[in-house]
Amino acid sequence: MKIDPDLTLQILEKVGIYSNRFSILEPKILFVTKDVLNMPREMTEGCRTSAYKYYGVSYLQHNLVFINIRKIPDEKTLENTIVHELIHMRFPYLAHGKRFNKLVRQGLGGKTFLPYKKRK
Ligand SMILES: [Zn+2]
After folding, report:
1. How many C-beta atoms lie closer than 10 Å to residue 43's C-beta?
2. Are 106 and 77 in contact, with CB atoms under 8 Å apart?
3. What pLDDT score does 30 carry?
4. For 99, what's the count of Cα atoms within 13 Å in the CB-facing half-sphere?
5. What CATH topology corresponds to 5-108?
6. Separation of 9 CA from ligand 1 center, angstroms?
7. How far is the CA of 4 from the centre of ligand 1 (A)?
8. Ligand 1 centre from 40 Cα, in Å?
9. How high does pLDDT run on average in the chain?
10. Contact 69, 7 (CB under 8 A)
């Protein structure tokens, strides 16, 4: 998709809405790979120069998310990517898989989640 101020604002609004529903602190959002590379190295460790390959990347430790607008083909994929990354934030222990995908579907469907509590 083409980056423009309207679209980035729309994305930030969606991130705000879903962050509320998922009871997470609203992450900082990066929109272009250049922003990823401009972040301190320790914040984007593990996925810097490879970030361009993905629709989205979550940097869980730093509450930071990259939404790769230029790579995302359409609105539906965009919404999916936003929810996918925010589900990572809410369920940091969960790897990709059936359960993860189910949570993404529920999130897209408007489900709310209570705050994440670390188990002792
Ligand atoms: Zn993921």
Report:
1. 14
2. no
3. 98
4. 6
5. Zincin-like (3.30.2010)
6. 23
7. 25
8. 22
9. 97
10. yes
